[in-house]
C-alpha cells in the first residue's frame, strides 16, 4: 500500500526462505541451494508453446475453412460469423458448450492480464515510495506472489539490479544510511526473501522484498522512500481495512480487484489522502483531483484551485444593523434568560416560546 498504508497480521509460519536448504541430489533445487526459478526454463517452455500454438492455429484455420459453407463445401449455405458456423455444424447442446468454452477462455485471459498488470504496477509502486503491501495468507498464493514479483523485477532491471541504468539511486548519502539502518535491524533478520544488496559508492539498493516482518520493527514504523517492500499477510482483504484505520492515516492507499463489492467497502471504510483502484500514482497526475494527505500524512491539498484554496485564508465578514438586538445576550443572566438561551442552543422551539412567554 502506498506511502504509509499499513496492513498487518501475524502469520510468520507462512515462509522462512532462509531455511530452505537443498537436499542432496534434489532436482527441485539449483546449484546455489535455492529453488529452481521458472525463468530458467524459459528457453524450453517458450519454443515449445510457440510450436504447439502454431499447430493449434493451423488446425483451427482448416476447421474454419471447412465450416465456411454448410452442407456442400462449394454451394452450401454461407456462414458469415463464427456462431453461424458453430450452429450449422454442431447444433443443439454443442453450441452452448462451445459458447461457454469461449467465455471461459475470455474470462481466463482477462484474469491473467489483470494479475500481470497489477503485479507490474505493484512492483513500480513498491520500489518507489511505498511502505506496505498485502497479499492473501495461503502459502501457495504467497509463493506465486513472491516469484511473480521476482520475475517482474528481472524483467524491469535485468539479472544484476545494482548495475541497471533503470534503477534509481538513493537521493542522498544520509537517506542511504537510513535505509541501511532499516535493513540491518535485527528484528527483520531472516525476513528478506529477495534482494537486500547495496552499493554505497553508487547509493543504490537492489529492490528488496521482506515477508511478515514484526510490527515493532523499524521498517514498519518509519517512512521508507526507498526500494524496500514489506509484504504482510492477512486471512482476507476485509480484515486489513480495520488494521489500516487503526494507525495513522496514509497519504495514499491502493487496491487491486475486480470485485465491485470490495471496491465499495474500500472507498467507504478507508480514510486516506487519496484512494486508487487498479492503478498507482495516477491521482497525482490528474489536475482535477486534490493531492494531499490527512492527519499525520499531511495537511491541505494541491492541484489547480485546490492549491489556491489551501494557501488562501478565508476571511469571515458579517454585516448587521443596530435593530433587533437580543437583551438575553447580556447580563444579568436571570433564570428566564438562561431558559431562553438553553432553548436557543438546543433548537427547542417549544422551549423558546415558553421562555419568551415567561412559563
Automatic annotation (TrEMBL):
This is Aldehyde dehydrogenase. Residues 167-317 form the Aldehyde dehydrogenase domain. SUPFAM superfamilies: ALDH-like (SSF53720). It comes from the Eukaryota. The keyword Transmembrane applies. It comes from Rhododendron simsii. Keywords: Amino-acid transport, Membrane, Oxidoreductase, Transmembrane, Transmembrane helix, Transport. GO terms for cellular component: cytoplasm; membrane. One of its GO terms (molecular function) is aldehyde dehydrogenase (NAD+) activity. GO terms for biological process: aldehyde metabolic process; amino acid transport. The keyword Oxidoreductase applies. It is found in: Membrane. Residues 39-131 form the Amino acid transporter transmembrane domain. Belongs to the aldehyde dehydrogenase family. The chain crosses the membrane at residues 41-60, 103-127.
